[in-house]
Amino acid sequence: MFVTEMIENGLYLVVGAENCAPHSLENVVKEAVQGGVRLIQLREKSLSTRKFLEIARTLKSILAEEHVPLIINDRIDIALAIDAQGVHLGQSDMPYRFARALLGQEKIIGLSVESLDEAHEAKHLDANYIALSPIFSTPTKTDTKIQWGYEGIQTAKKFITQPLVAIGGINQTNITEVLAAGADIIAVVSAISQSDDPKHSAKMLRDVIDHHTLKNHSG
């Protein structure tokens, strides 16, 4: 159910407390959902386990009222502890097959790929989505191998059958081209979390996605 909603709605916010300053994480998430975000990933790389767990529980409670799934980045222990809807894994995290064995088939597992070789390996997995990272270089994630760009999306789209998430440097100025290149889901960080008005920024992105979807369906 959740994966279908992701594809239909197509706007995914990756968020952490540090990314939201000076706003609060909770307010950014609430406003983003009001603006049209339909999937939230909590990514916290520097917090203690106790603090991460506390924030995750709070967000899950907020999102449950809106029927929006919460995905936990990397930390399968946190996801299990709060019964989150899924996890997102990078190439240095727990291998996919172990994560699936722990979480079961009902949970969402997304996987980031940072090269064509990794993308070709990922296509054989039953991951719920594959994320190309980053589409464009971004200060929020610097430990990456390549910049996919529009051509990279087009290339990956030819052989990846799972829903394709595009993340990294996407905003109002380039989202149309990213969608046209073949991305199924648009994931953003600073385009919403660093906005003066997260709800408005989410709605602007949402409108572009809806227009693209309507155009494709009518065409």
Report on this model:
This protein is α/β, with parallel strands linked by helices. It has a single domain, classed as Aldolase class I (TIM Barrel, Alpha-Beta Barrel). It has 11 helices and 8 strands. It has an 8-stranded parallel β-barrel with strand order 1-2-3-4-5-6-7-8, surrounded by 9 helices. Helix 9 runs parallel beside helix 11. The model has no long low-confidence stretch (mean pLDDT 93). The longest helix is centred in the C-terminal third of the chain and has 21 residues. The protein is 47% helix and 16% strand.
Write the layout of secondary structure elements.
Elements: H1 2-9, E1 11-15, H2 17-20, H3 25-35, E2 39-42, H4 49-66, E3 70-73, H5 76-82, E4 86-89, H6 96-103, E5 108-113, H7 116-122, E6 129-132, H8 149-157, E7 164-167, H9 175-181, E8 185-188, H10 190-193, H11 198-218
Parallel strand pairs: 1-2, 1-8, 2-3, 3-4, 4-5, 5-6, 6-7, 7-8
Helix pairs in contact: 3-4, 3-11, 4-5, 9-11
Pick out its properties.
16% strand; 8 strands; single chain; TIM Barrel; 47% helix; 8-stranded parallel β-barrel; 219 residues; alpha/beta
- Which second-level CATH architecture applies? Alpha-Beta Barrel
User: Number of helix segments?
Assistant: 11
> Mind telling me the CATH class?
Alpha Beta
The major β-sheet equals: 8 strands, parallel, barrel
The global form is globular
Corresponding CATH superfamily = Aldolase class I
- From the N-terminal CA to the C-terminal CA, the straight-line distance is 26 Å
What name does the CATH topology carry? Answer: TIM Barrel
